[in-house]
Amino acid sequence: MTTQPIRAGVVGLGSMGLGIAASLVRAGIETWGFDPNPTAGKAFADKGGHVAASPAEVGAQADVLFCVVVNAAQAEAALLGEAGAVGAMAPGSVVVQCATCAPDAVRALARPILEAGLLFIDGPISGGAAKAATGEITVMASGDPAAFAKARPAFDAVAAKVFDLGPEIGAGSQVKLVNQLLAGVHIAAAAEAMAYGISGGCDPKALFEVITASAGNSWMFENRVPHILDDDYVPRSAVDIFVKDLGLVHGSAHARKFPLPLTAQALQMFTQASAMGLGREDDAAVVKIFPGVALPSRDGKDPA
């Protein structure tokens, strides 16, 4: 029995979406993509993808559609709004919703999509632009087993790990919020540790080498501190992403009166950085909230 090849779509060709779309093309899956930024569309076209003029045009072509936008409001607009993808998709097609959202928001988004005869996977992602570009993201997914079965060839193309967290919509998003809690707290802790060490006279590069060989190391310390050492705050993941994501974590816990003291403090740190005009810089720029710290500078001058 011959299996019909799937066609894929990606709405949102930002740092993660472009890598996902390119990985689909590289796997031989015919793929359509849309982004309101024409530069992103051109980058996708250069990788062999079909550039669509609207989410609806992507939906009309896709058996499996990845929605890789920033938040629930953008996902609702891209999928259900005017020229949204869902209205153009054939029954039985799969929507994979990848934005980091509160579980309640994802359940509300899924309802009209399921009622339209489509399949839905609550599938937030992790791994950053680098893993997306190589087809090695992690997907924290929940949804109907039939949706997983249909989306499997697409997941094989874009992900190193797909965790099936069961059929309940919202389960994937809850796990993603736990991941974002840890990621945000670890970045904030790494920034605080570096600022503290530098203020106490430590050589930044030597400090990095010692900590990464010691028990105090973390994945985020090892990944983000080189940005500080290189005075490189070009955003791979921006400060404002963690203002948003830690805000979602804190808000969801607050609604059920569950205390998250470390999350609250990290959220305040990222919020302070954003208020200082650093919102679009790399999230490692949270280190800049500490006054009087001579951070590494590419021109050799102290930032003060």
In brief:
By secondary structure, this protein is α/β, with parallel strands linked by helices. It contains twelve helices and nine strands. Helix 11 runs antiparallel to helix 12.
Question: How would you describe what is shown here?
Answer:
It contains 12 helices and 9 strands. The protein is an alpha/beta fold and 304 residues long. The protein has 2 domains: 7-168, 3-Layer(aba) Sandwich (Rossmann fold), CATH 3.40.50.720; 174-289, Orthogonal Bundle (N-(1-d-carboxylethyl)-l-norvaline Dehydrogenase, domain 2). Strand 5, helix 5 and strand 6 form a beta-alpha-beta unit. Helix 4 (72-80) runs parallel beside helix 5, helix 8 (171-199) packs across helix 10 and helix 11 (239-255) packs antiparallel against helix 12 (261-278). The protein starts with 6 loop residues before the first strand and ends in a 26-residue tail after the last helix. The mean pLDDT is 96. It is an enzyme of class 1 (oxidoreductase).
